[in-house]
């Protein structure tokens, strides 16, 4: 009897410690970035399952002043994205531009570049879209506005940005 209680208690302790240390996977939320840096704004309606991995939040700028750049940075604990350890997520909102930047804990994230595809435009916009860069460090597309993808090995970051 004592042995079975010890075994059950040990199994419960292991299960609790494993679930407590399981990383929050941001991949489902960030997946639109893979499809042409599709727009994501983590400052609006961020699901609670991702909020659990935020250890602190910093806001630079005044969101009440129209046109002022506002940078919101989420510092993360025990988080990952696309199978890589993620340390922070930064969102910049300007007057007519934005960027979403993911910071990783090591340079292994560079292997993700092939998963990030160029934007696809409908038939009305496609004739006006120009790819000005597309290499291992990212891409730049102009289509009346711009969409950029930057893989920065020095900062250990991936940035999707866009604007007019």
Layout of SSEs?
Layout (H helix, E strand, L loop, with lengths): L1 H20 L2 E2 L1 H4 L17 H4 L2 E7 L9 E12 L2 E10 L3 E8 L25 E6 L2 E5 L3 E7 L4 E7 L1
Parallel strand pairs: 1-3
Antiparallel strand pairs: 2-3, 3-4, 4-5, 5-9, 6-7, 7-8, 8-9
Summary of the model, kept short:
The chain has 3 helices and 9 strands. With 164 residues, the protein is α+β, with helices and mostly antiparallel strands.
Search tags:
single chain, 164 residues, alpha+beta, nine-stranded mixed sheet, 9 strands, 17% helix, globular
Describe the structure.
The protein is an alpha+beta fold. The chain contains 3 helices and 9 strands, in the order αβααββββββββ. Strands 1, 2, 3, 4, 5, 6, 7, 8 and 9 form a 9-stranded mixed β-sheet that branches.
